[in-house]
């Protein structure tokens, strides 16, 4: 029996299930679906079939890549399901039709088999690390943003086992503090209030290489979450604040970063310091007094960022943060020292030693900088010794190769010439007289006459 599956209940798409699918899941908006289909007119005339071509059809659901009836109907189908969709003209090709096979104002029938689908890829990198299958659409236009408060219910499963089922409120960007994986936060940026979706999350965006002892999740495990966004409060936008408000927000995030750093939550600390910098990244609009406060905050946040990145074994990022701090205060000891450490970690000892020596100019009693400078100099010496040995070996290798080639060339000469050539390549000419400079430089273009008189002719 055919059922009207349109939201408006206007009879535009009627669905009749021929074969039941498996499970309860259906694809959501944005899912990449794979189907087989056969399309006919009401009189039974077939106008197209993927089965005849043995070539399944693939498309992004809900993105207007197909006729409206398909976006409506395919979304209701389970894996393995076969159904017939009867599509009114306004849900198909309308008054124009699709000549020459589909006439104007044609009602069409499609037999569709749902083969499989992949949820909507919602990662910025588009690496399919987090995919979303929407169960229930949200309402309105507001979506969560960094710094905004969200109220969600989450149910996490691994290999069919529920490991996490709770209501939780947290600030976007700080989910880690509540044991919320990054994949959920990435997905929530696209949620609207009331939305319920299934998220399939690769280990990179879940508990990574360490897994989770609290949830008994092994390393490198892919997991699944059912997430409902119950409520949200949008975070403050930088552009909406005046300069004193920006400074206050920066102070708040800096303090959060410091607290997370003390708790050894380095990744969260990095996020907070970066957020603080975001509020005060431009220097215009401040009066003299407020500019001093802003510069002090900017210096402190970049110094702390450099330290966090060093602890996180991210020397390139540490170097960049320390350089930003030096743009505010070119003679800052901590900034020079931390950039030196980062450069040393990057094996750039010749650059690192300059920063450590600059620290010693400012504070000659800085023993840590003196030790690091010595480490750099020893590394430079070792590198020079390695280079010297490398080049020596290289030249020795080239010399051997040249000698081998010379021997090979000699071996190719006729036997009658080998002895003569060997004598000619000596410093003396046959007959006892010294070789001329020309003869020494051109031993291979002259040879003895056959009569052995010592006279020479061109070869």
Outline the structure in words.
This protein has helices at 50-53, 68-73, 182-188, 243-262, 266-279, 288-311, 315-328, 333-345, 349-362, 367-411, 415-424, 437-441; strands spanning 3-4, 13-19, 32-41, 46-49, 57-60, 82-87, 108-118, 120-121, 130-136, 149-158, 161-171, 196-201, 223-233, 446-448, 456-458. It has 459 residues and is of the alpha+beta class. A hairpin with an 8-residue loop joins β8 (120-121) and β9 (130-136). Residues 419-433 and 445-459 have low confidence and may be disordered.
Features:
single chain; 459 residues; alpha+beta; seven-stranded antiparallel beta sheet; six-stranded antiparallel beta sheet; 15 strands; extended; disordered C terminus
Low-confidence stretches: 419-433, 445-459
- CA(first)-CA(last) distance: 102 Å
Count of beta strands: 15
User: What is the number of helical segments per DSSP (H or I, 4+ residues)?
Assistant: 12
> In sequence order, what are the helices and strands, one letter per element?
EEEEHEHEEEEEEHEEHHHHHHHHHEE
Rg over CA atoms = 38 Å
Largest sheet composition: 7 strands, antiparallel
| Averaged pLDDT | 89
Structural category: alpha+beta
Helix content percent band: 25-40%
Q: Tell me what portion of residues adopts beta-strand conformation.
A: 15-25%
Molecular shape? extended
């Amino acid at each position: 029996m055919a059922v009207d599956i349109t939201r408006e209940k206007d009879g535009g798409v009627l669905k009749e299930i021929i074969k039941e699918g498996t499970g309860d899941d259906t694809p959501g908006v944005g899912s990449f679906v794979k189907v087989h289909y056969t399309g006919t007119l009401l009189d039974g005339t077939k106008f197209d079939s993927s089965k005849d071509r043995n070539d399944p059809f693939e498309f992004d659901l809900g993105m207007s890549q197909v006729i409206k009836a398909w976006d409506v109907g395919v979304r209701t189908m389970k894996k393995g399901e076969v159904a017939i969709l009867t599509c009114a003209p306004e849900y198909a090709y309308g008054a124009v039709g699709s000549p020459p096979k589909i006439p104007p104002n044609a009602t069409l029938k499609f037999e569709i088999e749902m083969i499989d689908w992949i949820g909507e890829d919602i990662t910025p990198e588009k690496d399919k690390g987090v995919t979303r299958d929407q169960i229930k659409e949200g309402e309105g236009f507001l979506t969560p943003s960094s710094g905004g408060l969200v109220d969600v219910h989450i149910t996490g499963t691994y290999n069919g086992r529920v490991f996490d089922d709770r209501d939780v409120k947290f600030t976007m960007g700080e989910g880690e503090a509540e044991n919320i994986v990054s994949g959920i936060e990435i997905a929530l940026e696209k949620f609207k209030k009331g939305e319920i979706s299934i998220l399939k999350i690769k280990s990179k965006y879940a508990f990574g290489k360490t897994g989770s002892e609290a949830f008994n999740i092994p390393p490198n495990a892919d997991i699944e979450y059912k997430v409902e966004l119950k409520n949200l409060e949008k975070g403050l936008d930088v552009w909406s604040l005046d300069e004193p408000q920006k400074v206050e927000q920066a102070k708040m995030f800096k303090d959060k970063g410091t607290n997370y750093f003390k708790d050894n939550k380095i990744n969260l600390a990095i996020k907070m310091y970066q957020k603080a910098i975001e509020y005060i990244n431009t220097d215009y609009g401040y009066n003299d007094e407020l500019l001093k406060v802003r510069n002090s905050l900017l210096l402190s946040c970049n110094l702390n960022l450099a330290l966090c990145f060093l602890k996180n074994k991210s020397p390139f990022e540490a170097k960049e943060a320390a350089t930003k701090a030096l743009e505010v205060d070119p003679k800052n000891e901590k900034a020079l020292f931390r950039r030196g450490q980062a450069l040393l970690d990057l094996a750039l000892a010749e650059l690192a030693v300059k920063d450590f020596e600059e620290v010693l100019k400012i504070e000659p009693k800085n023993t840590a900088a003196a030790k690091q400078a010595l480490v750099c100099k020893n590394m430079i010496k070792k590198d020079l010794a390695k280079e010297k040995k490398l080049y020596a070996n290289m030249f020795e290798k080239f010399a051997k190769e040249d000698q081998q080639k010379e021997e090979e060339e000699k071996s190719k000469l006729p036997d009658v010439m080998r002895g003569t050539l060997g004598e000619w390549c000596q410093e003396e000419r046959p007959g006892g007289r010294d070789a001329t400079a020309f003869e020494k430089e051109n031993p291979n273009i002259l040879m003895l006459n056959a009569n052995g008189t010592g006279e020479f002719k061109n070869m």
